Amino acid sequence: MVFPILPFFAAGKDLKSVTEAKPFISLTGQALLDLSKTSVEEAAAFIEENKSYKFVCGLLQPGHQVSDDDIVRFVNCGIAVLFIASEEEANRLQQLGVPQERLALDNGSAYVSQFEIVQDFAKDRIIDASSLTESQMAQALLSSIKTDREDKLYTTLVVDTYQRCLGLVYSSEESVKMAIEKQVGVYFSRSRNEIWVKGLTSGNTQKLVNIQLDCDGDALKFVVVQEGKKSDFCHLNTASCYGEFQHGLVGLEQLLRQRMENAPEKSYTRRLFNDPALLTAKIKEEAEELTEANTKSEVSWEAADLFYFAMVKLVASGVSLEDVERNLHVKHLKITRRKGDAKPKFVKQEAKPEPAQEAGATLTGDIELEVVSGKDKEGVAAALSRPIQRTSEIMHLVNPIVEKVRAEGNKALIELTSKFDGVQLEQPVLEAPFPEEYLDGLTQEMRDALDLSMENVRKFHEAQLQKETLEVETQPGVLCSRFPRPIERVGLYIPGGTAVLPSTALMLGVPARVAQCKEIVFASPPRKSDGRVSPEVVYVAQKVGASKIVLAGGAQAVAAMAYGTETIPKVDKILGPGNQFVTAAKMYVQNDTQALCSIDMPAGPSEVLVIADENADADFVASDLLSQAEHGIDSQVILVGIALSEQKIAEIQQAVHDQALQLPRVDIVRKCIAHSSIILCNSSEEAFDMSNDYAPEHLILQIKDAAKYVPLVFNAGSVFVGAYTPESCGDYSSGTNHTLPTYGYARQYSGVNTSTFQKFITAQSVTPQGLENIGRAVMTVAKVEGLDAHRNAVKIRMQKLGLLPESFQ
Ligand SMILES: NC(=O)c1ccc[n+]([C@@H]2O[C@H](COP(=O)([O-])OP(=O)(O)OC[C@H]3O[C@@H](n4cnc5c(N)ncnc54)[C@H](O)[C@@H]3O)[C@@H](O)[C@H]2O)c1
Ligand SMILES: N[C@H](CO)Cc1c[nH]c[nH+]1
Ligand SMILES: [Zn+2]
């Protein structure tokens, strides 16, 4: 229900003076303009300037002289409903194109309409705005609400102008009157039993924008702008009584407004605010990338980028999201529309495909890395920032998936696999021994390649296996030891979104086997073609003795292994790389004590940093960059060049372009290269500092005497030393593990290794002599901690051994 009064603005020229003299009228959120005395321009200006009036209607008096053209223009500029006198007029206006639901017809005592929330308006509720008073408004409102509460208070929902709920409060007749009079948030405090002017003590005051009634008139809604230093609504210092808001577009707008005020001079956002040409270029670039996006995740990724830059433009221009929404509302109300064709310059010209177009490309243009000078600190920081979504945003998508699987088990898994992978499964698990037909199509050459790779990985990981018990006598009679045990049940995630990765199956399965884990469970998204996983993955599963293959991917697969389902065992640790959904789900379950499940590390989108000098072969450098770029659009590849000549840079750029065009995954590469860079340094120290700061998943050294520089590496997942060590060798067959920390986590995590599948238990054995040596120290420290039982455990023993007198306290 709307506010029970519709203020009538009789004359166009008075619109401004009335709204200025009586600002409280806007609390109704609605206005009726006399269209016979108002020009279209005045109506349009009223709608544009008075944002609190959500529904602006127009009265066409009987016998009015308003032309048909102007009526259409009124409707098109945002007049929501036309109040008219007769059926005849209604028919005529409908022929003009005004929809029936945009007409309110005079039935003698009321104007009757079907328009959204306006509906019927009794004539005695239409009141001349110039004579309307605050008390009239309060009276009308109070006579329209009811309450069944004993204390006669009215339940009041408080929302902001984006309709986000801030909290629930109560109003009394008195507080409603005060709120209208002062146009601020005034309520009734039940705990203090008195009128409560919001923010009087905290400073977090509220500007009242609108008041509404709910559908059956038993609850109020106050639309407010929260003001004050922190603009929190809740007494617990959060934006709302339901906690902080999800970030979203509104949050981004608020953040950018703050940045506009206080972003550091060298930050990227400040650069965007200060450089309109850069902002324009980014908006165009992101718009183009959005048009080229195909899959759901690409579209959401690119749209998010475009919204970000568009939002910077809004904030820089002083335009709010609310202005944009109002604009959309007015456009929605238009009855004549533009044809909607694009301007000729944006209509696609039939382009001649580049020579290598057949390789799988749908996009065109140079594939070129941005070149940044190492001296440009801000440019370097921007180049080294990873193209990842905020954890909170991803978590927002992942939490419901995890909770669904946890609550509904296999049923949820089947549903989510159908939704995200387009495969309708009957059973989400394949049990060992795996049916022979699942190996159909596996060639001998492939078996040999997998066997060789598995053997090398086994050798390297077997050598890492810690089997012995470590023993140290810290004092005579005090023997400390540590012994390894395998983690019993492990869940291994094998990615299968944009590429099937049997190599990951062996990188995880082989060390699990070496460490003697008791149960190995695989999970991988099923293929669209037949709902199976690839024969190579099944082959590896068989070889490493996996008990089950979960036919699911993404967050749902992680949740199924973390909590278990009817047929999937709950595991103790989940390992393996994956996209952002997989990584976020792993991080979620590791933090949930109910899951009792650990993870290897955050191993997300692949990345590489190549350090190259003038000796480097441009083709080698390009091939290494591209081998990681082809993993996904969210991968990132960085070349740090040490004293590279212009010519070498040009050769590398050319090699990247030429090789990329030959790749079937060139479209993915193109998008990855768009957020990848070449950074130019003058010395190896500078290059290694930059690399250690970035902490890449893979670091490739294509520099003279590369091995000499390994001591300078402090943060990296795995290092590839010398011109003939391509990263692909480590991905598949050399023996090192390819499951490595990304996002910069190489600062604190190691890649997967044999000990990732083990845990280490400590033990100790203390003799009477040992007790004599350390007992007093134990008692002293226990005393200062106030833990007497700890102290007693030593004291009693030492007394029985005669090491302390009976009287010892
Ligand atoms: N760091 C490492 O060690 C390492 C090793 C190998 C691969 N990788 C990386 O692993 C990643 C593999 O990613 P991928 O996408 O190809 O395969 P993936 O198996 O990780 O993810 C695919 C799954 O994501 C889910 N998904 C897709 N869109 C979704 C959406 N909108 N909402 C919810 N779920 C959705 C689907 O269930 C799908 O099965 C790549 O980024 C690659 O670079 C990293
Ligand atoms: N380079 C990836 C790790 O980031 C692993 C991989 C598997 N297949 C090919 N490459
Ligand atoms: Zn790879």
UniProtKB/TrEMBL annotation:
EC number(s) on file: 3.5.4.19, 3.6.1.31, 1.1.1.23
Pathway listed: Amino-acid biosynthesis; L-histidine biosynthesis; L-histidine from 5-phospho-alpha-D-ribose 1-diphosphate: step 3/9; Amino-acid biosynthesis; L-histidine biosynthesis; L-histidine from 5-phospho-alpha-D-ribose 1-diphosphate: step 9/9; Amino-acid biosynthesis; L-histidine biosynthesis; L-histidine from 5-phospho-alpha-D-ribose 1-diphosphate: step 2/9
SUPFAM superfamilies: ALDH-like, all-alpha NTP pyrophosphatases, HisI-like
Single annotated GO MF: metal ion binding
Sequence ranges assigned to domain Phosphoribosyl-AMP cyclohydrolase in this UniProt record: 168-242
Annotated GO CC locations: cytosol
Needed cofactors: Zn(2+)
UniProt keyword terms in alphabetical order: Amino-acid biosynthesis, ATP-binding, Histidine biosynthesis, Hydrolase, Metal-binding, Multifunctional enzyme, NAD, Nucleotide-binding, Oxidoreductase, Zinc
InterPro entries per the UniProt record, alphabetical: Ald_DH/histidinol_DH (IPR016161), HisE (IPR008179), Histidine_synth_trifunct (IPR016298), Histidinol_DH_CS (IPR001692), Hstdl_DH (IPR012131), PRib-ATP_PPHydrolase-like (IPR021130), PRib_AMP_CycHydrolase_dom (IPR002496), PRib_AMP_CycHydrolase_sf (IPR038019)
Any GO BP annotation: L-histidine biosynthetic process
Any Pfam family: PRA-CH
Catalysed transformations (reactions): 1-(5-phospho-beta-D-ribosyl)-5'-AMP + H2O = 1-(5-phospho-beta-D-ribosyl)-5-[(5-phospho-beta-D-ribosylamino)methylideneamino]imidazole-4-carboxamide; 1-(5-phospho-beta-D-ribosyl)-ATP + H2O = 1-(5-phospho-beta-D-ribosyl)-5'-AMP + diphosphate + H(+); L-histidinol + 2 NAD(+) + H2O = L-histidine + 2 NADH + 3 H(+)
Superkingdom per UniProt: Eukaryota
Family: In the C-terminal section; belongs to the histidinol dehydrogenase family.
UniProt-recorded name of the protein: Histidine biosynthesis trifunctional protein
Species in which this protein is naturally found: Lachancea meyersii CBS 8951
